[in-house]
Design goal:
Blueprint (H helix, E strand, L loop, with lengths): L12 H11 L4 H5 L3 H9 L1 H4 L1 H12 L24 H34 L8
Helix pairs in contact: 1-5
Length: 128
Amino acid sequence: MSEQTPGISERSRGVALALGVLGGIFGLHRFYTGHTRTGVWMGLTLGGLGVWCLYDVVVIAAGDFADADGRRVVRWQTVAAPPGESAAGDLAEITDRLRRLESHVSELGERVDFAERLLARPRASEPK
């Protein structure tokens, strides 16, 4: 595991910022950083009608946001994988899964095209 600096959170500022922008009105960034109680309140008030959410996004971007333990969330990168877990292996697996998914989507597209052609043909019982 990476060396932890006192006062600096192991949480990623980039992830917190993305969660704040995409799901801030639901308090997703608050749940990510361990602030569950305020995360629930943000969800109930829809991010303080957007004001609280906007404030948090600015504070996270500035690097002044703290996690539940009072440590600042300043690191942009995520914590490195523990020893024995390879990020390259994960990347290869993800790439393989994406290729298989692309193949399945392509096959489904062909099936939809075929079904559309069948439905577009006039039936024998219909007058022309």
